[in-house]
Design brief:
single chain, globular, 13% strand, Aspartate Aminotransferase, domain 1, Aspartate Aminotransferase, domain 2, 15 strands, 2 domains
């Protein structure tokens, strides 16, 4: 597939759809008629099977079997069972991943564990333009510990230079949430280890969108969410990874009863479970975890290499179309132009990006806006078609050429952008 030379015609895009080896997966998702959904990097589309699974959990496992389902339906083991299903998608082994809690909580847990493993070091390296929750949780942890830790913020090109003998942990997002640029997981992890530091990776914008190889990169810890490319549902459970080599020593501060070595002994004092189980905290949200399993089961049948190949094609073609059709309307490109250097999203910039995105959404093309000037378009290869890309670019052109986006209704700011 020669994307750089492909004719920019509807017929050529339709032909790509006809030959797409992933095209059958699209039928497994509930996609509203007349909507082009390019926001799966924020909230993945619902698998059709999710409704039936939710109904089964509520009507049979909860309403009929009641509390027996902790044993008969395997509720208590869900964090480990889902973690083992997710592990191959992110290059982890069995027993190294838990699906549990929220991303921010998991950042707090694994960062605290990493700092405890490097007690004589006081510096955390983070990307300053990182998704804010990672920065906020690190700042809160530093303040709570009160041990003189500090965060050294560095942007993409300065990260390696920021890693020295004072660094306890490097805590970074693999794919940047705004621009989509990819950090070199293997190279940065190796540099951290050479300096004696540990490496923590946030996979929220890469898990399910591209191949990830945590063990191949020798990552120490990782976190991520299920509700973006993994299609786990709004507010779906997050996950964490602890490399097996750390599991006997690493401890986390949120010592809830699910992390106890014998939770149903109900002893007074905490004693950590062996291995990964000590990173559990309290009772988990079973309904959302059961629904998240549906998305993970889809990925068990998908080829991540094909997903990445299609992702590169979708994003590259969208950039080509915007360049050709909308080049005179003041758009810039915040994402890397080099396809291999970006995740599965395209970030455009525009001085009046917010009303433009609202106009797009009103006309059936759903992306999102990130302040101050970024229009984000997420391309989810399991259900985004090539004709979606063609029609999205055409809709953007019509909105700009007709000045549709200038209507006052599109300038009213919503609570969620």
């Amino acid at each position: 597939m020669q994307i750089d030379t492909l004719p920019l015609t509807a017929e050529a895009f339709a032909a790509l759809d006809a030959d797409d080896p992933l095209r059958a997966f699209r039928d497994e998702f509930a996609l509203p008629e007349g909507v082009i959904y390019l926001d799966g990097n924020s909230l993945g589309a619902a698998p059709k099977a999710a409704l039936a699974r939710a109904q089964e959990v509520v009507s049979r496992e909860w309403a009929t079997d009641l509390i027996k389902s902790w044993n008969t339906a395997g509720w208590f083991e869900l964090p480990e069972r889902l973690g083992d299903k997710l592990a191959p998608v992110i290059g982890a082994g069995a027993g190294e991943v838990l699906v549990t809690d929220a991303t921010g909580l998991n950042v707090f847990k694994v960062l605290a564990a990493a700092l405890a493993l490097r007690p004589d070091r006081k510096v955390i390296v983070m990307e300053g333009s990182n998704f804010p929750t990672d920065n906020y949780m690190a700042q809160g942890l530093v303040e709570f510990l009160g041990q003189g830790h500090q965060i050294r913020f560095a942007e993409k090109d300065d990260i390696l230079a920021a890693i020295d003998q004072d660094v306890a942990a490097v805590c970074l997002t693999h794919v940047h949430y705004k621009t989509g640029h990819i950090l070199d997981m293997q190279g940065i992890t190796a540099a951290a280890h050479q300096a004696g530091a540990l490496a923590i990776w946030d996979l929220c914008h890469s898990a399910g969108a591209m191949p990830v190889d945590l063990n191949g990169a020798r990552a120490d810890f990782a976190v991520g969410c299920s509700y973006k490319y993994l299609n786990g549902g709004p507010g779906g459970p997050a996950f964490l990874f602890v490399a097996r080599r750390h599991q006997g020593e690493a401890r986390q501060p949120l010592t809830g009863w699910w992390g106890h070595k014998a939770p149903f002994a109900f002893s007074r004092d905490y004693a950590p479970a062996p291995g990964l189980a000590r990173f559990r905290t309290g009772t988990q949200p079973i309904l959302s975890m059961a629904v998240a399993e549906v998305g993970l089961d889809i990925f068990a049948r998908a080829d991540m290499a094909l997903i990445r190949q299609k992702s590169l094609a979708l994003t590259s073609l969208f950039i080509r179309l915007v360049d050709e059709r909308c080049g005179s309307f003041g758009f810039g490109l915040a994402s890397p132009r080099d396809a291999d250097a970006r995740g599965s999203q395209v970030a455009l910039t525009h001085a009046t990006g917010y009303p433009i995105m609202k106009a797009l959404i009103a006309h059936g093309v759903i992306g999102d806006f990130r302040a101050p000037d970024i229009l984000r378009f997420g391309f989810t290869p399991l259900y985004t078609s090539y004709m979606d890309v063609w029609n999205a670019a055409e809709t953007l052109y019509r909105i700009m050429a007709s000045d549709e986006w200038k209507k006052p209704v599109y300038s009213a700011v919503d609570a969620v952008t």
